[in-house]
Specification:
Elements: E1 2-9, H1 13-24, E2 29-33, H2 40-45, H3 47-65, H4 81-105, E3 108-112, E4 114-119, E5 122-126, E6 132-142, E7 146-148, E8 162-163, H5 165-168, E9 177-181, H6 185-196, E10 200-204, H7 216-229, E11 232-234, E12 238-245, E13 248-255, E14 258-264, E15 266-269, E16 273-275, E17 308-310, H8 321-335, E18 349-351, E19 356-361, H9 364-370, E20 374-380, H10 385-390, E21 396-402, E22 408-415, H11 418-430, H12 435-439, H13 450-459
Parallel strand pairs: 1-2, 1-6, 2-3, 6-17, 8-15, 9-10, 9-15, 10-11
Antiparallel strand pairs: 4-5, 5-6, 7-16, 12-13, 13-14, 18-19, 19-22, 20-21, 21-22
């Protein structure tokens, strides 16, 4: 038995980042992770492997459909799915080993196994070989992440043909026809990978638009762009059944009372994720998880048991790796007696399709619901010289500011490198900047970032290049 100041249960973005920060602050710290590798869903079967495949598929798509415009022609163009998967796994392996190196640097004890509470100061860890150890700590942080939502009654996962995002990263060959249930981030990203490599991709979405949480203008524009790339959407459509049929899958759905049937090779169920708090022994310490698996915490991330904290996907808020990362650092600092803090209004959200989508802050719909007066500046990438040089002119930058104070309330981007461009708006919102602050800041020419300046100018109807 070993004793620590704090034990993080879960080795994903919240767990490993929080553990490293706790180590930097001089606490004796351990991190318990049952997967066998660190990095959680994000690094192992989420953010990183999906982006590796997205990049590989986009490289192929560009070579096939866009390179000729630049005067680059190919006489024979092929792709190798096995090599793409091998490259993806190499990236994941390198990064997970890197986290283990950081643990050593910050004096974090890495405990491999499944952690279960015995009491509020003791956790039992069952290792992969079945051996059992108990460890004590003054504080615990629950950061066990999330798992894909399974539609067990109508589309149960079989790990091969009706799959979650995890298995969609590992198709050994390109499906002839992939049906995606859910037009959210995961559905569009993974749908894009296989679409670019030759799949017919059909998306079924129960709501009335793609990317439902996003700003309405972003949702509408993104659907239009994805349709132009070949993706087929059935919105306002409810899945009723997905079941094996011969060598493929038969999907039935309903729209406006009318039934439809789709025969396909694979079905990706991407209707969201749920908090993973199973098997933690919460009943042994008097903590009750909600029906959705999430845990209630106070502003200091404490559960109903004060020395047991929770962060990341197991508490309210967007299920994003960087949100979990920030909370991991904040909770480590709070446990160490410092002032940990997360500004939830400045957490960006990104969709790694191409063009990319990125947003931060409030949407127009949210502002209208809150009764807040606002003004909007919106500039298309078509007006930008660098975007034209790239040959990537789809999309726009949209900045929303308070009508009275000019303080930036939200920013929404569809376009090339949106995932990088959004950082300017995140920093601006972190420091309570106005649209005029961005408008008066010099932006290098020619760059994609000039669209940010123009959109900020457009908030006050004084854009100079559009």
């Amino acid at each position: 038995m070993a004793a620590f100041d704090v034990i993080f249960i879960g080795g994903g973005p919240a767990g490993y980042t929080g553990a490293n920060r706790a180590g930097q602050l001089g606490l004796s710290v351990a991190c318990v992770e049952f997967r066998g590798t660190l990095g959680g869903t994000c690094l192992n079967v989420g953010c990183i492997p999906s982006k590796a495949l997205l990049q590989s598929s986009e490289n192929f798509y560009h070579a096939k459909h866009k390179a000729a415009e630049h005067g680059i022609k190919f006489t024979k163009l092929e792709f190798d799915v096995a090599q793409m998967l091998k490259r993806k796994e190499g990236i994941v392996s390198g990064l997970t080993k890197g986290i283990e190196g950081l643990f050593k640097k910050n004096k974090v004890t890495y405990i491999k196994g499944k952690g279960t509470f015995v009491n509020a100061n003791t956790v039992k860890v069952v290792a992969m070989d079945g051996s059992i150890e108990e460890h004590t700590a003054k504080s615990f942080v629950l950061c066990t992440g999330s798992i894909p939502v399974e539609l067990r009654s109508i589309a149960p996962f079989d790990g091969k043909d009706i799959v979650s995002s995890t298995e969609s990263l590992c198709f050994e060959k390109v499906p002839d026809h992939l049906v995606v249930i859910g037009a959210g981030v995961i559905g569009l990203e993974m749908g894009s990978v296989w679409l670019r490599l030759g799949s017919k991709v059909t998306v079924i979405e129960a709501m009335d638009r793609a990317l439902p949480p996003m700003d309405g203008a972003v949702s509408a524009e993104m659907k239009k762009i994805m349709e132009k790339q070949g993706m087929l959407f059935h919105l306002n459509t409810k899945l009723t059944k997905a079941e094996k049929s011969g060598k493929g899958v038969k999907v039935t759905a309903e729209k406006d009372g009318q039934a439809m049937t789709i025969d396909c090779d694979k079905v990706l169920v991407a209707v969201g994720r749920r908090a993973y708090t199973d098997g933690l022994g919460l009943e042994n310490v008097g903590i009750a998880a909600r029906r959705d698996g999430k845990l209630d915490v106070n502003k200091h991330y404490q559960t109903s048991v004060p020395n047991i904290y929770a962060v990341g996907d197991v508490i309210d808020g967007p299920m994003l790796a960087h949100k979990a990362d920030e909370e991991g650092v904040a909770v480590a600092e709070l446990i160490a007696g410092k002032s940990g803090h997360v500004n939830y209004m400045a957490i960006p959200n990104v969709v790694y399709t191409w063009p990319e989508v990125a947003s931060v802050g409030l949407t127009e719909e949210e502002l209208k619901a809150k009764g807040i007066e606002y003004k909007v500046g919106k500039i298309p990438f078509m007006a930008n010289g660098r975007a034209r040089a790239f040959g990537e002119t789809d999309g726009f930058v949209k900045i929303i500011a308070d009508a009275k104070t000019d303080r930036i309330l939200g920013g929404h981007i569809i376009g090339p490198n949106a995932s990088e461009l959004i950082a300017e708006l995140v920093i601006a919102m972190e420091f309570s900047a106005s649209a005029e602050d961005i408008a008066r800041s010099s932006h290098a020419h020619p760059t994609l970032a000039e669209v940010m300046k123009e959109a900020a100018l457009a908030v006050d109807k004084r854009a100079l290049n559009f």
